[in-house]
Specification:
By secondary structure, the chain is mostly helical. The protein contains three helices and no strands.
Length: 90
């Protein structure tokens, strides 16, 4: 193991001269990239967490605007549910 900084899972380390080792490293990086791209629940959870962090920062910075945004979002969701219920009831 080298003393360099660790590479991301999707990067093939440089300096591999053995073709078998290089092929293994490339396969490992490709599989890691596919797993990262294809794992939609994980990506959604990470995006939700980033959004929550941004929302908390916004609420700390301007609580009145955050309360207004929350009320607007609640009203929009309520209106959408009311509209869907009305369509179903017809």
């Amino acid at each position: 193991m080298s003393s360099e900084a660790p590479h991301p899972k999707t990067v093939v380390p440089s300096g591999i001269s053995d073709p078998v080792e290089l092929a293994r490293a490339e396969l490992k990086a490709a599989l890691a990239a596919i797993e990262i791209k294809g794992n939609l629940p994980r990506r959604a959870a990470e995006a939700t967490q980033r959004g929550a962090v941004k929302a908390r920062a916004f609420a700390q910075k301007s609580p009145v605007a955050a309360a207004a945004a929350a009320a607007g979002a609640a009203a929009a969701i309520g209106f959408a549910i009311w509209g869907a219920a009305r369509l179903i009831a017809r």
